[in-house]
Amino acid sequence: MTPLQEIISKFQELVAQVPEIFQPFIVMLAGAVPFVEGEVAALIGLLGGLNPVVAGVVAAAGNFISVLLVVLLTSRARTAVVTRNRVRVGATVGAAAPAGHPEAESAFEETAPAKPLSKGRQRLNTWIVRFGVPGASILGPFAIPTQLTSAILVAGGTSRAWVLLWQAVAIVLWTTISTVSIWAALTYLVGA
Q1: CA-CA distance, 125 to 12, in Å (whole number)?
Q2: Helical H runs in 17-159?
């Protein structure tokens, strides 16, 4: 038995101590974690001895549920901010402060420059411009987690339904590719 086969065997013994009914839920919870997502969660399920189909489905489901929650929360936050800004602008239109008043001068002050964007955020913004929401959703996992990609898209004003559709496509695509690849590697290369 090779060292890798021994590690897999020990991991499967550890997983066997968890009741069988809870094993898919653990993989689902792993799929909900950013940076782990469906791909690594499927690996955990396969190494734990779950059926490849079950491991892939529950990993993708966990990832999508977390994306759904992020999209709903981001959408509500965006709506609150946009509504608040509209109320604030509506209240200040026509109400001018007297000349020399500090409020009159502060209305025309320059705003401080924003923090520079991270490399992942720059890459995602490039993909959004170049490929739109479908491309950003499918290519996004190469730069940042799907949860962050979906939050950025919704915060930017993209429709929730459109973001959820393309995030679902991306999650299913990448989780399926990784599950099949990992299963094939474990079956044919490692012999586990």
Answers
A1: 41
A2: 23-31, 37-47, 52-92, 102-106, 119-139, 146-155
Asked whether the beta carbons of 172 and 58 are under 8 A apart, the reply is no
Please tell me the total number of residues recorded for the chain in this structure. 192
Residue 159 belongs to some domain of the structure: yes
Q: Is residue 96 part of a domain?
A: no
Per residue in 148-190, pLDDT tens?
999 999 988 888 999 999 999 999 999 999 999 999 999 998 8
Position 110 in a domain: no
Written as six digits, the tokens of 18 are 């968890």
From residue 126, give the alpha-carbon distance in Å to each of 120, 131, 139. Answer: 10, 8, 11
Query: Domain range spanning residue 23?
Result: 3-90+117-190
The string of pLDDT tens digits covering residues 89-101 is 555 555 555 555 5
